Amino acid sequence: MALTGLFLITFLVEHLYTNLLIFAGDGGLAFNEASHSMVHSIFIRVVEIVLFAAIILHVFQALSLTRENAKARPVKYAVSGVNQTSDWFSRNMGLTGSLILFFIVVHLNNYFVPYRITGTVGDGQEYSIAQCVVLALRHPGYAGLYLVSVIVLGFHLNHGFQSAFQSIGFNNKTYMPLLKLAGTGLAILFTVGFGAFPVLIFLFKFCQDILPLN
Amino acid sequence: MNLTLKVWRQKNASDKGAFVTYNAKNVSEDMSFLEMLDVLNEELVEKGDQPIAFDHDCREGICGMCSMYINGRAHGPQNGTTTCQLHMRKFKDGETITIEPWRAAAFPVIKDLVVDRSSFDRIIAAGGFISVNTGNAQDANSLPIAKKDADDAFAAAACIGCGACVASCKNSSAMLFVSAKVSQLALLPQGRPEAATRVLNMVKQMDEEGFGNCTNTGSCEAECPKEISLENIARMNREFLFASLAGA
Protein backbone atom coordinates (compact mmCIF):
# COMPACT_ATOMS: atom_id res chain seq x y z
CA MET A 1 0.00 0.00 0.00
CA ALA A 2 2.79 2.34 1.01
CA LEU A 3 4.92 1.95 -2.11
CA THR A 4 2.01 2.06 -4.56
CA GLY A 5 0.57 5.04 -2.67
CA LEU A 6 3.83 6.98 -2.80
CA PHE A 7 4.17 6.20 -6.52
CA LEU A 8 0.64 7.48 -7.16
CA ILE A 9 1.53 10.72 -5.33
CA THR A 10 4.43 11.30 -7.75
CA PHE A 11 1.95 10.97 -10.60
CA LEU A 12 -0.33 13.58 -8.99
CA VAL A 13 2.56 16.09 -8.97
CA GLU A 14 3.03 15.66 -12.73
CA HIS A 15 -0.73 15.73 -13.34
CA LEU A 16 -1.18 18.95 -11.39
CA TYR A 17 1.65 20.64 -13.30
CA THR A 18 0.15 19.70 -16.68
CA ASN A 19 -3.33 20.77 -15.59
CA LEU A 20 -2.14 24.19 -14.49
CA LEU A 21 -1.02 24.88 -18.08
CA ILE A 22 -4.71 25.39 -18.87
CA PHE A 23 -4.46 28.73 -17.06
CA ALA A 24 -1.52 29.84 -19.25
CA GLY A 25 -3.81 32.34 -21.02
CA ASP A 26 -2.88 31.08 -24.49
CA GLY A 27 -6.25 29.64 -25.43
CA GLY A 28 -5.24 26.22 -24.12
CA LEU A 29 -2.29 25.87 -26.53
CA ALA A 30 0.32 24.79 -23.94
CA PHE A 31 -2.13 22.40 -22.31
CA ASN A 32 -3.08 20.84 -25.66
CA GLU A 33 0.57 20.51 -26.67
CA ALA A 34 1.52 18.89 -23.37
CA SER A 35 -1.39 16.45 -23.68
CA HIS A 36 -0.55 15.73 -27.30
CA SER A 37 3.12 15.05 -26.60
CA MET A 38 2.13 12.70 -23.78
CA VAL A 39 -0.12 10.73 -26.11
CA HIS A 40 2.78 10.23 -28.53
CA SER A 41 5.56 9.55 -26.04
CA ILE A 42 6.69 5.93 -25.71
CA PHE A 43 8.03 6.71 -22.24
CA ILE A 44 4.62 8.00 -21.11
CA ARG A 45 2.90 4.93 -22.56
CA VAL A 46 5.14 2.69 -20.45
CA VAL A 47 4.62 4.85 -17.34
CA GLU A 48 0.90 4.73 -18.04
CA ILE A 49 0.90 0.92 -17.82
CA VAL A 50 2.87 1.08 -14.54
CA LEU A 51 0.41 3.69 -13.28
CA PHE A 52 -2.65 1.55 -14.03
CA ALA A 53 -0.90 -1.42 -12.45
CA ALA A 54 -0.17 0.68 -9.34
CA ILE A 55 -3.81 1.78 -9.05
CA ILE A 56 -5.06 -1.80 -9.44
CA LEU A 57 -2.48 -3.09 -6.93
CA HIS A 58 -3.32 -0.29 -4.45
CA VAL A 59 -7.04 -1.17 -4.68
CA PHE A 60 -6.38 -4.91 -4.49
CA GLN A 61 -4.18 -4.48 -1.38
CA ALA A 62 -6.84 -2.28 0.23
CA LEU A 63 -9.54 -4.89 -0.40
CA SER A 64 -7.33 -7.65 0.93
CA LEU A 65 -6.48 -5.64 4.10
CA THR A 66 -10.14 -4.77 4.67
CA ARG A 67 -11.20 -8.41 4.34
CA GLU A 68 -8.49 -9.65 6.74
CA ASN A 69 -9.19 -6.88 9.25
CA ALA A 70 -12.93 -7.60 9.27
CA LYS A 71 -12.14 -11.25 10.07
CA ALA A 72 -9.88 -10.21 12.96
CA ARG A 73 -12.84 -8.82 14.94
CA PRO A 74 -15.93 -10.97 14.33
CA VAL A 75 -17.79 -9.55 17.37
CA LYS A 76 -17.97 -5.76 17.44
CA TYR A 77 -18.01 -3.57 20.55
CA ALA A 78 -21.39 -2.31 21.77
CA VAL A 79 -19.77 1.01 22.68
CA SER A 80 -16.78 2.29 20.73
CA GLY A 81 -14.70 5.27 21.78
CA VAL A 82 -12.27 4.92 18.89
CA ASN A 83 -13.09 8.47 17.78
CA GLN A 84 -11.32 9.65 20.96
CA THR A 85 -8.08 7.92 20.09
CA SER A 86 -7.79 8.30 16.31
CA ASP A 87 -9.10 10.63 13.64
CA TRP A 88 -11.98 9.78 11.30
CA PHE A 89 -9.94 9.96 8.11
CA SER A 90 -7.28 7.56 9.37
CA ARG A 91 -10.01 5.01 10.08
CA ASN A 92 -11.91 5.48 6.84
CA MET A 93 -9.21 5.30 4.18
CA GLY A 94 -11.27 2.58 2.45
CA LEU A 95 -14.26 4.88 2.16
CA THR A 96 -12.29 7.92 0.99
CA GLY A 97 -10.30 5.65 -1.35
CA SER A 98 -13.53 4.26 -2.84
CA LEU A 99 -14.78 7.80 -3.53
CA ILE A 100 -11.49 8.66 -5.20
CA LEU A 101 -11.65 5.46 -7.27
CA PHE A 102 -15.19 6.34 -8.39
CA PHE A 103 -13.96 9.76 -9.45
CA ILE A 104 -11.00 8.25 -11.30
CA VAL A 105 -13.39 6.03 -13.30
CA VAL A 106 -15.60 9.04 -14.21
CA HIS A 107 -12.52 11.12 -14.95
CA LEU A 108 -11.00 8.46 -17.24
CA ASN A 109 -14.33 8.08 -18.99
CA ASN A 110 -14.41 11.82 -19.68
CA TYR A 111 -10.87 12.25 -20.95
CA PHE A 112 -8.85 9.07 -21.29
CA VAL A 113 -11.46 6.97 -23.08
CA PRO A 114 -12.40 9.50 -25.80
CA TYR A 115 -8.82 10.64 -26.44
CA ARG A 116 -6.98 7.37 -26.22
CA ILE A 117 -9.45 4.60 -26.99
CA THR A 118 -12.53 5.60 -28.96
CA GLY A 119 -11.02 8.69 -30.60
CA THR A 120 -14.39 10.46 -30.63
CA VAL A 121 -15.44 13.21 -28.28
CA GLY A 122 -18.91 14.18 -27.07
CA ASP A 123 -21.36 15.11 -29.80
CA GLY A 124 -19.04 14.22 -32.66
CA GLN A 125 -17.71 17.77 -32.97
CA GLU A 126 -13.96 18.28 -32.99
CA TYR A 127 -12.87 19.54 -29.57
CA SER A 128 -9.37 20.02 -28.29
CA ILE A 129 -8.64 18.41 -24.91
CA ALA A 130 -8.49 21.86 -23.30
CA GLN A 131 -11.96 22.63 -24.67
CA CYS A 132 -13.15 19.29 -23.40
CA VAL A 133 -11.84 20.08 -19.91
CA VAL A 134 -13.52 23.49 -19.79
CA LEU A 135 -16.82 22.17 -21.17
CA ALA A 136 -16.89 19.34 -18.60
CA LEU A 137 -16.08 21.69 -15.72
CA ARG A 138 -18.85 24.06 -16.77
CA HIS A 139 -21.27 21.27 -15.89
CA PRO A 140 -22.35 21.75 -12.24
CA GLY A 141 -22.57 18.00 -11.51
CA TYR A 142 -19.08 17.29 -12.77
CA ALA A 143 -17.58 20.41 -11.21
CA GLY A 144 -19.19 19.46 -7.87
CA LEU A 145 -17.96 15.88 -8.06
CA TYR A 146 -14.48 17.11 -9.02
CA LEU A 147 -14.32 19.50 -6.07
CA VAL A 148 -15.63 16.99 -3.51
CA SER A 149 -13.22 14.34 -4.84
CA VAL A 150 -10.13 16.53 -4.53
CA ILE A 151 -11.12 17.51 -0.99
CA VAL A 152 -11.51 13.84 -0.13
CA LEU A 153 -8.18 13.18 -1.86
CA GLY A 154 -6.59 15.78 0.41
CA PHE A 155 -7.77 13.99 3.54
CA HIS A 156 -6.75 10.62 2.07
CA LEU A 157 -3.23 11.94 1.46
CA ASN A 158 -3.00 13.72 4.81
CA HIS A 159 -3.11 10.32 6.49
CA GLY A 160 -1.69 8.27 3.62
CA PHE A 161 1.59 10.12 3.11
CA GLN A 162 2.90 9.87 6.68
CA SER A 163 1.35 6.41 7.05
CA ALA A 164 3.32 5.19 4.02
CA PHE A 165 6.60 6.25 5.63
CA GLN A 166 5.59 4.59 8.90
CA SER A 167 4.82 1.36 7.00
CA ILE A 168 8.22 1.25 5.31
CA GLY A 169 9.88 1.78 8.67
CA PHE A 170 10.69 5.46 8.40
CA ASN A 171 9.70 6.95 11.74
CA ASN A 172 11.60 8.64 14.51
CA LYS A 173 10.99 11.57 16.82
CA THR A 174 13.00 14.00 14.68
CA TYR A 175 11.71 13.53 11.17
CA MET A 176 8.22 12.06 11.70
CA PRO A 177 6.73 15.45 12.66
CA LEU A 178 8.36 16.87 9.50
CA LEU A 179 6.90 14.07 7.39
CA LYS A 180 3.46 14.68 8.89
CA LEU A 181 3.83 18.35 8.08
CA ALA A 182 4.96 17.52 4.54
CA GLY A 183 1.94 15.20 4.12
CA THR A 184 -0.43 17.93 5.25
CA GLY A 185 1.34 20.39 2.94
CA LEU A 186 1.00 18.02 -0.01
CA ALA A 187 -2.66 17.40 0.84
CA ILE A 188 -3.33 21.16 0.86
CA LEU A 189 -1.31 21.67 -2.34
CA PHE A 190 -3.29 19.01 -4.23
CA THR A 191 -6.65 20.08 -2.82
CA VAL A 192 -6.08 23.75 -3.61
CA GLY A 193 -4.30 23.03 -6.90
CA PHE A 194 -6.82 20.60 -8.34
CA GLY A 195 -9.72 22.33 -6.59
CA ALA A 196 -8.84 25.51 -8.47
CA PHE A 197 -10.11 23.97 -11.74
CA PRO A 198 -13.79 23.54 -10.85
CA VAL A 199 -13.81 26.69 -8.69
CA LEU A 200 -12.20 29.00 -11.26
CA ILE A 201 -13.74 27.48 -14.38
CA PHE A 202 -17.27 26.83 -13.07
CA LEU A 203 -17.75 29.57 -10.50
CA PHE A 204 -15.53 32.33 -11.85
CA LYS A 205 -15.88 31.46 -15.56
CA PHE A 206 -12.14 31.33 -16.23
CA CYS A 207 -10.79 30.03 -19.55
CA GLN A 208 -13.49 31.70 -21.71
CA ASP A 209 -10.89 31.94 -24.48
CA ILE A 210 -10.64 28.16 -24.67
CA LEU A 211 -14.34 27.51 -25.27
CA PRO A 212 -15.43 26.54 -28.82
CA LEU A 213 -17.12 29.31 -30.83
CA ASN A 214 -20.73 28.27 -31.29
CA MET B 1 -21.98 7.69 43.91
CA ASN B 2 -24.58 5.47 42.25
CA LEU B 3 -23.90 3.85 38.90
CA THR B 4 -25.63 1.68 36.35
CA LEU B 5 -23.34 -1.03 35.02
CA LYS B 6 -23.97 -2.84 31.77
CA VAL B 7 -21.67 -5.85 32.01
CA TRP B 8 -21.01 -8.50 29.37
CA ARG B 9 -21.89 -11.89 30.84
CA GLN B 10 -20.94 -15.08 29.01
CA LYS B 11 -20.95 -18.51 30.69
CA ASN B 12 -18.19 -20.02 28.57
CA ALA B 13 -16.44 -19.79 25.21
CA SER B 14 -19.33 -21.39 23.34
CA ASP B 15 -22.09 -19.36 25.04
CA LYS B 16 -23.56 -16.50 23.01
CA GLY B 17 -23.37 -14.02 25.90
CA ALA B 18 -25.36 -10.84 26.58
CA PHE B 19 -25.25 -7.63 28.58
CA VAL B 20 -26.68 -7.73 32.11
CA THR B 21 -27.51 -4.50 33.91
CA TYR B 22 -26.55 -3.99 37.57
CA ASN B 23 -27.06 -1.06 39.90
CA ALA B 24 -23.94 -0.23 41.90
CA LYS B 25 -24.96 1.85 44.93
CA ASN B 26 -22.88 3.94 47.32
CA VAL B 27 -19.70 3.52 45.33
CA SER B 28 -16.77 5.41 46.86
CA GLU B 29 -15.01 7.66 44.40
CA ASP B 30 -11.71 6.60 45.99
CA MET B 31 -12.22 2.98 44.95
CA SER B 32 -10.37 1.59 41.98
CA PHE B 33 -12.54 0.23 39.17
CA LEU B 34 -11.64 -3.33 40.17
CA GLU B 35 -12.57 -2.68 43.82
CA MET B 36 -15.94 -1.42 42.65
CA LEU B 37 -16.40 -4.73 40.79
CA ASP B 38 -15.21 -6.64 43.88
CA VAL B 39 -17.98 -5.03 45.95
CA LEU B 40 -20.54 -5.81 43.25
CA ASN B 41 -19.31 -9.41 43.12
CA GLU B 42 -19.68 -9.77 46.89
CA GLU B 43 -23.30 -8.64 46.56
CA LEU B 44 -23.86 -11.11 43.72
CA VAL B 45 -22.36 -13.97 45.75
CA GLU B 46 -24.53 -13.04 48.77
CA LYS B 47 -27.58 -13.23 46.51
CA GLY B 48 -26.44 -16.61 45.22
CA ASP B 49 -25.59 -15.32 41.74
CA GLN B 50 -22.42 -16.05 39.79
CA PRO B 51 -19.83 -13.30 40.33
CA ILE B 52 -18.55 -11.45 37.26
CA ALA B 53 -15.37 -13.12 36.04
CA PHE B 54 -12.56 -10.69 35.25
CA ASP B 55 -8.78 -11.01 35.07
CA HIS B 56 -6.68 -9.25 37.71
CA ASP B 57 -3.46 -9.88 39.55
CA CYS B 58 -0.97 -7.23 40.72
CA ARG B 59 -3.43 -4.32 40.94
CA GLU B 60 -0.54 -1.89 40.57
CA GLY B 61 -0.43 -1.50 36.83
CA ILE B 62 2.41 -3.84 35.95
CA CYS B 63 0.93 -7.28 35.28
CA GLY B 64 -1.41 -6.30 32.44
CA MET B 65 -4.16 -8.72 33.44
CA CYS B 66 -7.11 -6.35 34.03
CA SER B 67 -8.44 -6.39 30.47
CA MET B 68 -11.71 -4.47 30.20
CA TYR B 69 -13.25 -2.28 27.55
CA ILE B 70 -14.96 0.45 29.55
CA ASN B 71 -17.33 2.85 27.81
CA GLY B 72 -15.64 2.18 24.50
CA ARG B 73 -12.08 2.60 25.80
CA ALA B 74 -9.46 -0.03 26.65
CA HIS B 75 -8.87 0.25 30.43
CA GLY B 76 -11.39 3.10 30.60
CA PRO B 77 -11.26 6.82 29.97
CA GLN B 78 -7.91 7.65 31.60
CA ASN B 79 -4.88 7.61 29.33
CA GLY B 80 -1.72 5.72 30.25
CA THR B 81 -3.26 3.56 32.97
CA THR B 82 -4.57 0.05 33.46
CA THR B 83 -8.05 -0.68 34.84
CA CYS B 84 -6.68 -1.34 38.34
CA GLN B 85 -5.25 2.20 38.38
CA LEU B 86 -8.52 3.75 37.27
CA HIS B 87 -10.41 5.41 40.10
CA MET B 88 -14.16 5.83 40.29
CA ARG B 89 -13.73 9.61 40.57
CA LYS B 90 -13.17 9.55 36.82
CA PHE B 91 -16.90 8.79 36.45
CA LYS B 92 -19.95 10.88 37.26
CA ASP B 93 -22.68 10.05 39.73
CA GLY B 94 -25.61 8.43 37.92
CA GLU B 95 -23.48 7.44 34.92
CA THR B 96 -24.11 4.26 32.92
CA ILE B 97 -20.88 2.33 32.39
CA THR B 98 -20.66 -0.35 29.69
CA ILE B 99 -18.04 -3.01 30.38
CA GLU B 100 -17.02 -5.41 27.62
CA PRO B 101 -14.23 -7.95 27.16
CA TRP B 102 -11.41 -7.35 24.63
CA ARG B 103 -12.89 -8.15 21.21
CA ALA B 104 -10.60 -9.91 18.77
CA ALA B 105 -10.66 -13.25 16.95
CA ALA B 106 -7.22 -13.93 18.45
CA PHE B 107 -8.53 -13.20 21.99
CA PRO B 108 -11.54 -15.53 22.38
CA VAL B 109 -13.74 -14.91 25.42
CA ILE B 110 -13.35 -17.61 28.08
CA LYS B 111 -15.93 -16.28 30.51
CA ASP B 112 -17.60 -12.88 31.07
CA LEU B 113 -14.74 -10.34 30.78
CA VAL B 114 -11.92 -12.90 30.71
CA VAL B 115 -10.25 -13.50 27.35
CA ASP B 116 -7.63 -16.01 26.27
CA ARG B 117 -4.45 -14.07 25.47
CA SER B 118 -2.24 -17.12 24.95
CA SER B 119 -1.80 -16.00 21.33
CA PHE B 120 0.64 -13.42 22.78
CA ASP B 121 2.54 -16.21 24.55
CA ARG B 122 2.86 -18.12 21.28
CA ILE B 123 4.21 -15.00 19.55
CA ILE B 124 6.84 -14.63 22.30
CA ALA B 125 7.65 -18.35 22.02
CA ALA B 126 8.23 -17.84 18.29
CA GLY B 127 11.22 -15.56 18.91
CA GLY B 128 10.78 -13.04 21.74
CA PHE B 129 13.91 -14.16 23.55
CA ILE B 130 17.66 -14.57 23.15
CA SER B 131 18.98 -18.13 23.03
CA VAL B 132 22.14 -17.72 25.10
CA ASN B 133 22.62 -17.34 28.81
CA THR B 134 23.72 -13.78 29.45
CA GLY B 135 24.90 -14.49 32.98
CA ASN B 136 24.80 -12.00 35.79
CA ALA B 137 24.55 -8.25 35.37
CA GLN B 138 27.83 -6.98 33.95
CA ASP B 139 29.93 -4.14 35.22
CA ALA B 140 28.63 -0.82 34.06
CA ASN B 141 30.00 0.22 30.65
CA SER B 142 31.70 -3.10 29.97
CA LEU B 143 29.38 -3.36 26.97
CA PRO B 144 28.89 0.15 25.59
CA ILE B 145 25.34 0.91 24.48
CA ALA B 146 24.32 4.31 23.18
CA LYS B 147 22.12 6.21 25.65
CA LYS B 148 19.33 6.62 23.09
CA ASP B 149 19.33 2.88 22.29
CA ALA B 150 19.27 2.00 25.99
CA ASP B 151 16.38 4.42 26.58
CA ASP B 152 14.41 3.18 23.57
CA ALA B 153 14.97 -0.47 24.52
CA PHE B 154 13.84 0.26 28.06
CA ALA B 155 10.74 2.10 26.85
CA ALA B 156 9.85 -0.83 24.57
CA ALA B 157 10.47 -3.31 27.38
CA ALA B 158 7.84 -1.50 29.46
CA CYS B 159 5.17 -3.34 27.43
CA ILE B 160 3.17 -5.49 29.84
CA GLY B 161 1.43 -7.54 27.14
CA CYS B 162 -2.03 -6.52 28.30
CA GLY B 163 -3.53 -6.50 24.80
CA ALA B 164 -5.03 -3.00 24.99
CA CYS B 165 -3.39 -2.25 21.63
CA VAL B 166 -5.28 -5.13 20.02
CA ALA B 167 -8.50 -4.24 21.82
CA SER B 168 -8.43 -0.60 20.79
CA CYS B 169 -7.23 -1.08 17.20
CA LYS B 170 -10.11 -1.02 14.73
CA ASN B 171 -8.36 -3.90 12.95
CA SER B 172 -7.45 -5.88 16.10
CA SER B 173 -3.82 -5.60 15.08
CA ALA B 174 -1.09 -6.75 17.47
CA MET B 175 1.65 -4.72 15.80
CA LEU B 176 2.36 -2.50 18.80
CA PHE B 177 2.83 -5.46 21.14
CA VAL B 178 4.98 -7.47 18.72
CA SER B 179 7.02 -4.43 17.72
CA ALA B 180 7.76 -3.57 21.35
CA LYS B 181 9.02 -7.12 21.94
CA VAL B 182 11.05 -7.06 18.72
CA SER B 183 12.47 -3.61 19.51
CA GLN B 184 13.57 -4.24 23.08
CA LEU B 185 15.87 -6.99 21.83
CA ALA B 186 16.80 -5.54 18.43
CA LEU B 187 18.14 -2.38 20.06
CA LEU B 188 20.61 -4.19 22.30
CA PRO B 189 23.79 -6.03 21.24
CA GLN B 190 22.65 -9.22 22.97
CA GLY B 191 19.59 -9.34 20.74
CA ARG B 192 21.24 -8.53 17.40
CA PRO B 193 22.54 -11.99 16.37
CA GLU B 194 18.99 -13.39 16.20
CA ALA B 195 17.25 -10.16 15.17
CA ALA B 196 16.44 -11.20 11.60
CA THR B 197 15.02 -14.65 12.36
CA ARG B 198 13.24 -13.24 15.42
CA VAL B 199 11.26 -10.62 13.53
CA LEU B 200 10.33 -13.00 10.71
CA ASN B 201 9.18 -15.73 13.10
CA MET B 202 7.24 -13.40 15.41
CA VAL B 203 5.45 -11.68 12.53
CA LYS B 204 4.64 -15.07 10.98
CA GLN B 205 3.16 -16.25 14.28
CA MET B 206 1.23 -12.98 14.68
CA ASP B 207 -0.36 -13.49 11.26
CA GLU B 208 -1.16 -17.13 12.01
CA GLU B 209 -2.96 -16.12 15.21
CA GLY B 210 -5.47 -14.08 13.19
CA PHE B 211 -4.65 -10.55 14.29
CA GLY B 212 -5.54 -7.79 11.82
CA ASN B 213 -3.22 -5.49 9.89
CA CYS B 214 -1.88 -2.14 11.00
CA THR B 215 -3.35 0.85 9.15
CA ASN B 216 -1.53 3.43 11.31
CA THR B 217 -4.58 4.99 12.98
CA GLY B 218 -2.58 5.38 16.21
CA SER B 219 -5.32 4.13 18.57
CA CYS B 220 -2.94 1.53 20.04
CA GLU B 221 -0.39 4.15 21.08
CA ALA B 222 -3.14 6.37 22.52
CA GLU B 223 -4.59 3.53 24.60
CA CYS B 224 -1.39 1.76 25.68
CA PRO B 225 -1.13 1.94 29.49
CA LYS B 226 2.67 2.03 29.14
CA GLU B 227 2.55 4.57 26.28
CA ILE B 228 4.57 2.41 23.91
CA SER B 229 5.44 4.47 20.83
CA LEU B 230 4.43 3.85 17.21
CA GLU B 231 8.15 4.24 16.43
CA ASN B 232 8.47 0.61 17.50
CA ILE B 233 6.12 -0.46 14.71
CA ALA B 234 8.24 1.43 12.19
CA ARG B 235 11.36 -0.23 13.64
CA MET B 236 9.77 -3.66 13.31
CA ASN B 237 8.72 -2.90 9.72
CA ARG B 238 12.31 -1.87 9.02
CA GLU B 239 13.72 -5.01 10.66
CA PHE B 240 11.20 -7.14 8.78
CA LEU B 241 12.01 -5.51 5.44
CA PHE B 242 15.78 -5.96 5.83
CA ALA B 243 15.40 -9.51 7.15
CA SER B 244 13.14 -10.42 4.22
CA LEU B 245 15.54 -8.88 1.69
CA ALA B 246 18.48 -10.69 3.28
CA GLY B 247 16.52 -13.94 3.08
CA ALA B 248 17.09 -14.73 6.73
Properties at a glance:
heterodimer, A: 214 residues, mainly alpha, 3 helical TM bundles of succinate and fumarate reductases, 8 helices, 73% helix, elongated, B: 248 residues, alpha+beta, Ubiquitin-like (UB roll), Fumarate Reductase Iron-sulfur Protein, Chain B, domain 2, 2 domains, five-stranded mixed beta sheet, two-stranded antiparallel ribbon, 11% strand
Explain what you see:
Chain A is mainly alpha-helical. Chain A is built from eight helices and no strands. Chain A has helices at 2-20, 29-39, 42-72, 88-91, 93-118, 129-137, 140-167, 176-203. In chain A, helix 5 packs across helix 7 (140-167). The model of chain A has no long low-confidence stretch (mean pLDDT 91). Chain B has 248 residues and is of the alpha+beta class. Chain B folds into two domains: 3-110, Roll (Ubiquitin-like (UB roll)), CATH 3.10.20.30; 118-246, Fumarate Reductase Iron-sulfur Protein, Chain B, domain 2 (Orthogonal Bundle), CATH 1.10.1060.10. In chain B, helix 5 (175-186) packs antiparallel against helix 6 (195-208). The mean pLDDT of chain B is 96. Classes of the chains: A mainly alpha (214), B alpha+beta (248).
Please provide a brief summary of the model:
The complex is a heterodimer of chains A (214) and B (248). With 214 residues, chain A is mostly helical. Chain A is 73% helix and 0% strand.
